[in-house]
């Protein structure tokens, strides 16, 4: 099968921007940055895939980038959108349909928690009227169940967030750059116990773009091309504990992340133990802890020792969310998966600055997870 | 008597019982009723009455006011606990009528009616509360 590589990456930093700077315009700017990083022009792109959850149709960016008539697929898969777009783009190259592909993600969310309409998730109005249509309730209940089942202390939730803010402080493009101790995180305003204000990521604004091409072409374009060794996406299996579920089967401990990660590692011929830097969906502190085990990076329960020894910070043995993750960057939903890829590319190129992982990493991994039970993973190598 | 929030939630109003659907093939049970079995991917469901007692599987407190269609009380929003109750054949998401400090995973709960505010008045919803023997 044809090998796919990353020729360029670009980002409009996540956070808050001017009110008139639209999500779509951020998308255009991220695309131009990725093209510049790859040393390519828009005319070199023969296929595009883009995603946005709430900020319009990504293919409208062609009116700014150039009306070259290329195919442009729009993707809308919640928090997994960016990586699903990347997966689709890689398939276009593998199939021979395309050679050089733009992958784009952007969003501009308002302040506060996401709202959702019961009918959009297959529920009657009663579900929202009963006060159950709240995403953060789910994160809290999933975290509590996980901690309870595997005997983890609540303090691990504080450690994850404190680690994210330390990484954010080392990332000049991060939104949240103030350092908090685990104790300060634990003592912050309670949103949905056991989760406090600093344990939940905020909806934000921003864009990210990646240029994919064949391995051969990438070698001509850049000195240190990053290979997309695999990309894999899954929806939820039966027995998965997901947001906005009025019922669950007894025991419910399945997850789309398990199969997405397993498939990504199998296709790449790499095992989780080989991973030297990882980006995991950290919509909340509990999510990062759960995903560490679901993706195979550690055993259930092992998170306590890893976090207490600070092994998952950019300066530890198993660095996770080295740019500060969703917790320090916020989440423009359509762009989030591509921010992860952007960060792994910088780490594998050795250009991540103050947060650069030591030891010349050669294997990276990304994982997104979103509503209503979608996961997508990539393995990236140099 | 208060009008039910949604008729499809209940198999009986007095005594109050929740309605679900059970697959005639794999026995998967859903709440509320639905036509298709999510496991067999076939239209094999029949309506059933769900047990009115179970155990608490997980919980949290809704500490901030949810967006519409949730309607807060006239006197202002008050935090409320929510959770999943394991009824044996299915786990149901529910409001909890309890002090958060009393909630423990695994505790016994029983079904009871709950007044739910909607834009046009008050409706009959459901909640679960600790049984007498588990009240502290």
Q: What are its keywords?
A:
heterodimer; A: 382 residues; alpha/beta; 9-stranded mixed sheet; 34% helix; 20% strand; B: 136 residues; mainly beta; 5-stranded mixed β-barrel; 4-stranded antiparallel sheet
Mean pLDDT of chain A, nearest integer?
Answer: 96
Largest sheet descriptor of chain A: 9 strands, mixed
Share of helix of chain A, binned: 25-40%
Q: Note the beta-strand portion of chain B.
A: over 45%
Major sheet: arrangement of strands of chain A: 3-2-4-7-1-8-12-11-10
Number of strands of chain B: 9
In whole angstroms, the N-to-C terminal distance of chain B is 32 Å
Please indicate the percent range of residues of chain A in DSSP E strands (runs of 2 or more): 15-25%
Helix content of chain B: under 10%
Q: List low-pLDDT spans of chain B.
A: none
Question: How would the global form of chain A be characterised?
Answer: globular
Return the structural class of chain B.
mainly beta
Number of helices of chain A: 13
Overall 3D shape of chain B: globular
Describe this structure in words.
- The complex is a heterodimer of chains A (382) and B (136).
- Chain A is an alpha/beta fold and 382 residues long.
- Chain A has helices at 23-38, 62-65, 81-94, 125-129, 135-150, 155-169, 182-187, 215-221, 256-268, 285-294, 303-308, 325-329, 336-349; strands at 4-15, 47-51, 72-75, 100-108, 190-192, 195-196, 205-214, 226-235, 247-248, 277-279, 363-370, 374-381.
- In chain A, the strands form 2 sheets. A 9-stranded mixed sheet of chain A has the order 3-2-4-7-1-8-12-11-10. In chain A, strands 5-6 form a two-stranded antiparallel sheet.
- In chain A, a hairpin with a 2-residue loop joins β5 and β6 (195-196).
- In chain A, α3 (81-94) packs across α13 (336-349) and α6 crosses α10.
- The mean pLDDT of chain A is 96.
- Chain B has strands at residues 10-13, 16-23, 29-30, 45-49, 53-62, 80-86, 91-96, 108-118, 121-130.
- In chain B, the strands form 2 sheets. Chain B has a 5-stranded mixed beta barrel with strand order 5-6-7-9-8.
- The N and C termini of chain B lie far apart (32 Å).
- The A-B interface holds A 113, 115, 118, 124-126, 128-134, 137, 140-142, 144-145, 148, 190-195, 238, 245-250, 252 and B 5-6, 8-9, 20, 28-32, 38-39, 57-64, 66-71, 80, 82-84, 86, 88-93, 95, 100, 105, 114, 116-118, 123, 125.
- β9 (247-248) of chain A pairs antiparallel with β7 of chain B.
